[in-house]
Amino acid sequence: TMANTPPSQFLGLGTHSSKANKFVVGFMKNRAGATDGRLRLMVSTEESGGATFTVSYDTSVCASNTGAGSHSVNQYSTTVVDLCPELRTLTYAAADRDKGVLVQAEGNKTISVYGENTKTASSDAFLALPSVEYTCPGEYTYIFTSTTNPDTASGKLLSSFLLVAWEADTTININVKSSAVRIFPPSDIREGPFFTNAVDGKLDFNINLKSQLSTFYYSDQNGNGNEDIDLSGSFVTSNKPLSVYAGHQCGRFPTDISFCDSLVEQVPPTLTYGQLFLGVPLDRGSSNLNQHYTVVVSQDNTLVNFTCSKNGIISKEETKTVNTGGKEVFSSDFDEYCCIESSGPASVIQFARGAGIVQSVGDPFMVIVPPVEQYSNRYTVRSIDLEAYRGDIQTDITLTSYINLAFHESFLNSGVITVDGVEQQTDSFSAIRSSSGSIIGYGKSVDITAGGFDTDYNLLNTAPFSALVYAWHRHMSAGFPAGFGLDPIALPSIYFDSA
Predict the structure, then answer these.
(1) Helix (H, G, I), strand (E, B), or coil: what is residue 42?
(2) pTM summary value
(3) Sign (positive/negative) of CA torsion 88, 90, 96, 97?
(4) Across the strands, what pairs with 276?
(5) 8 A C-beta contact, residue 116 and residue 40
(6) Do residues 145 and 265 lie in contact, with contact meaning Cβ atoms separated by under 8 Å?
(7) Nearest-angstrom CA–CA distance, 328 and 293
(8) For residue 96, what pLDDT is reported?
(9) DSSP for residue 225
(10) What is the pLDDT of residue 149?
């Protein structure tokens, strides 16, 4: 059945979330080149008295040791830590094997961590996810979402994924959905043979990451260079927690739009998937472009319903069957607010549409839409400044930044969301209707451009809500979720322990 109402025990205020004590972070290739542009961490906390945290990595990667060491962050604030661009993982060769970054708060304090990977005219950001060790089922599965870039003239710009080990001796099964993909991991990490499943054509093999912070990056760089291959629906299963990133070196969305951008999100494990999602259109000012949502699922024969509302009235509805190893893309108008309901555990990624020639503001980015079941009630985030990397001197286009907010209808009278103390009155939100025709939630976009960039924002309510942070500039953009829960709601009967 569709999940119109989230289970009461998982209304966004569960035990585990993206706020935690320890993180393992990685950075994927961003277009071409290794050492240009900017890598950075944005670390925030809501702890009384703030928090002290350390950043560590294999300093042989970076002679200057940029960012390594101890840092502090004040309560309801963000500390930015610049890192060496050399920490991008570019291949799966031995030289690129140990580029993970460990971020850990002192004592039992909790922090939130966000990553940014920016180059000239190419950027995206992500919410870093901590490790949660679940006693059942004893393994962890992560499903990729990406897109393609069919432009062979621009070079090998490929759908990609990155794995970073939390612990030594992590065994990983990798299931790539297309046998057309070529992949030859070095023999020192490969375990067992490669084989192609004759039924579904998937490439299936195992690797072992032998030390903490070991990395494995895949983008078909030693194979065919198949720019038209989309790794969405491919997945990995590991015996220990992983940090898993999926995206594209410079992906298009949709693929017939000529401009591309770096795409990345850290992928949560499937046992944290939800069944109810609220989609708020990404605000691009006067550049009103269609919205796109990509859905992947962890169970075959999952029914996914996509219902959109305009001015509180249902304007679109469709239902599709989605299987593991596949994906479905749902599109809506620029002013439609959408509800996505799933009969089984699902993950939803919202893609910003590429600008193209006429609409020149922004390029694609990808951002996780958290399930309603995993909402939280407080976030401390930082807006992104892309000005230094815009890549041209056109002055009629300026950097803009927004926060999208959404909440479940059951919390309509349970408090008011504030953005830096400014109340977002409920009558300023747009209603979102479900497949039943009833109002299931509310959403709005808040323009924070006037507040400046590289600026902290405190988002608060007594009830759970979601927040997506994003920014646009001339042919570039970036977006990330402010945070979400990581409770095992796809397996509600299990017991688990924190890492």
Answers:
(1) strand
(2) 0.91
(3) positive
(4) 341
(5) yes
(6) yes
(7) 8
(8) 85
(9) -
(10) 61
